[in-house]
Structures are given as C-alpha cells and as structure tokens.
Amino acid sequence: MEKIASFKDLKIWQRGMELAKAVYEITSLFPSKETYGIVSQMRRSAVSVPSNIAEGFMRKGNREYAQFLYISLGSLAELETQVIISEQLGFIDNNKSGELQATISDISKMTMGLIKCL
Questions:
Q1: Phi and psi dihedrals of 3, rounded to 5?
Q2: Are 58 and 77 in contact (CB under 8 A)?
Q3: 82 near 41, Cβ under 8 Å?
Q4: What is the pLDDT along the chain (118 residues), one digit of tens a residue?
Q5: Which residues, 6 or more positions from 57, have their beta carbon under 8 angstroms from its beta carbon?
Q6: Closest CA to 50 of 15, 24, 81
Q7: 87 contacts: CB under 8 Å, gap ≥ 6
Q8: What is the topology classification, in CATH, of domain 7-117?
Q9: pTM for the full model?
C-alpha cells in the first residue's frame, strides 16, 4: 500500500476535483441570467468538497478531520439538490444529471468510509 504523503494522494480528493471541474464545465452552458444564481451556488458547493477534504487532512486530529469530512458531505447533498433543480429547470439533461448524481453518490460513500476509518 502506498503512503499518503499529501491530500493530493487521496482518491477521494482526486474525485472531488474531477467533480468540481465537471460542475464548472456544465454550468458554463447555463443561461447567463443564472450566473449569480444557481451557477454560483453549484460551483461553491462543488469546490467545497475537495477543499474540505484537503483542509481536514491537514488538521492534527482525526476528530477535526472527520468534522471537515462531514462538511464535505453536506456540500455533496447541497450539490445533488442543485443538480436536480437544474434538471427540473431544463438546464441539464437527464443523462448528465444522472452522471453527476452517480459521481456525487460515489464520493459520498467514499467520504463515509473514510470517516468510519478515522
């Protein structure tokens, strides 16, 4: 097993980064009137996921780390809700929405697994 020297070595952080990138790409196609609405909300939620994983990793204790992972879970739930709203408003097609929701679900499971390991 490889040693985890940095938060960048964590698969969960890498997946979070991929999710954030995907959200930025998808929301760039949203109507411009949504720039300060759902686009901004979705991007903040998506960026929060790997950011909190990284910040928690750098904390001293497992308890603190777990707290940041819980924040990441909250951001994932928030993002999933925003994806569903975006689909219902016709900003995202159901295939892309399904892909995002599947990725969010996978990262949520990984996060819960990491919390249990701490």
A1: -80, 140
A2: no
A3: yes
A4: 678 889 999 999 999 999 999 999 999 999 999 999 999 999 999 999 999 999 999 998 999 999 999 999 999 999 999 999 999 999 999 999 999 999 999 999 999 999 999 9
A5: 6, 7, 10, 13, 65
A6: 15
A7: 93, 94, 97
A8: de novo design (two linked rop proteins) (1.20.1440)
A9: 0.95
CA distance 22 to 46: 9
Cβ distance 104 to 19 under 8 Å?
Answer: yes
Query: Alpha carbon of 115 to those of 71, 85, 98, 108, 112: distances in Å?
Result: 12, 29, 26, 11, 5
Question: Which residues, other chains included, contact 52 with Cβ-Cβ below 8 Å and sequence gap of 6+?
Answer: 68, 69, 71, 72, 75
The domain limits of the chain are 7-117
